[in-house]
Amino acid sequence: MLALQNNPYAQKVNGCYVDSSSHYVTLEQRVNETLAAMPAHRLATVKQMLSSGLSEFYRVYGHTVKKWSDLSLAKSVLINLSDIYIDTTMQRTLDLHWVAQLIAKFKTTKVVPIQVYIDENNRLCAWDGQHTAVVLYLICVNIFKLDPSKVKVPVNIYPSNKKSEMRECFLDLNSSAGKLTLASIDHWIQQVFGVRIDGSTNPEWKLTEQKQSILEKYNLFVTHDKFFDTDMPGAISRLQEINKYDTTVIDWLCDYLSQVNQGDRPVIEKEIVMMSHFFGRCRLEGIKVTKAYIKKLAGVCLTLWDADFTPYGPFWAQVAYAYRNWHQSNPANAMTTPKASKEPLHGFPFLLAQLAKSMPDQPLPRNTSSSNFWPLAEDLF
Questions:
Q1: Is the dihedral of CA 364, 367, 252, 307 positive or negative?
Q2: Measured between alpha carbons, how far is 39 from 271 in angstroms, rounded to an integer?
């Protein structure tokens, strides 16, 4: 079995966390770099959405808004649009789908001043309002064909450049109505950067950073649908379990995942649910999980059902078959219809029974399922 030793895409994603210093880019760079980083099969869709959004803006405002000054933006300190820099380690990954929606439903009354601070090089760096800035930039260069260095936009300039403080403000502010609510992945990114760049000692953030280090060790990475890479090798798009368990469980889980994924597929949702539950129970019951234990476990899963936990894969098909036979063999179930759950409720008893058969020399956690289901011996793989 080969672990994910060579996973260039995971290395690329995780590489953004490696630099311990801030990285500043212009609005033009932010847009171009976001487009350039997209998988080719997603790029055309995003470009079409942006084009449609700009067309809708022109349809709504084309007859009344003839020049930049016709946009009734909120008054604050006015600076040149080109003078805004994006702190990529503080702002979430640019979501061009959201940008397209904002452009298509543009209203000047919704354009709030962009939050900026002045860095040590006297740059105006946005710590909140990236999407607003990009919306204005795209309208400026695509609708009005103007030079961003010659148009003014409102900003609020904050006297502090204490980034750890502004990072916490960013997380708090983006839970407000009218904002693109932060997903779990956005909190993850901010917390990792908060520790690695700002030197935050927040215990929760430090725990997240430790888990990120584990993912990097096994060439896995966390992501979200909005990044268009949930189908890439090593991608983990479900963070609930990663956030729930301690670093020991996450290390066991990632070791297992790196062995069964073998660099050619993402981590399946039901796979991470089932196996994190398994390792979580091992941890709780004090079962010694070694490298050899994980290797043997991965070998059983690969050999018997190709470690495939997809909803219609061989594991759940066998669970359903075993559950139906067990249900029919128990008179107490006579008044109910057999319906196997594709969750730990029925999956965990089956997994434990199978592992007891396939690796009888290894300790296993207790069955804690609330179901009475236990597969018949002949219904195992």
A1: positive
A2: 24
CA distance 300 to 308: 12
HSE-up of residue 37 (Cα within 13 Å, Cβ side): 19
Which residues form the domain of 61?
A: 21-161
Query: Would residue 330 count as lying in a domain?
Result: yes
Half-sphere exposure of 39 (CA within 13 A, CB side): 13
Is 123 inside any structural domain? yes
Q: In this predicted model, what pLDDT tens digit does every residue of 164-185 receive, in sequence order?
A: 777 777 777 766 555 566 789 9
Residue 319 confidence (pLDDT): 98
- DSSP secondary structure letter of residue 289: -
pLDDT of 6 higher than 90: no
Q: Which amino acid is at 129?
A: G
Six token digits for residue 78:
């006015």
The tens digit of pLDDT for each residue in 93-148 reads 899 999 999 999 999 988 989 988 888 888 999 988 999 999 999 999 999 999 99
Question: Does the residue 230 lie in any domain?
Answer: no
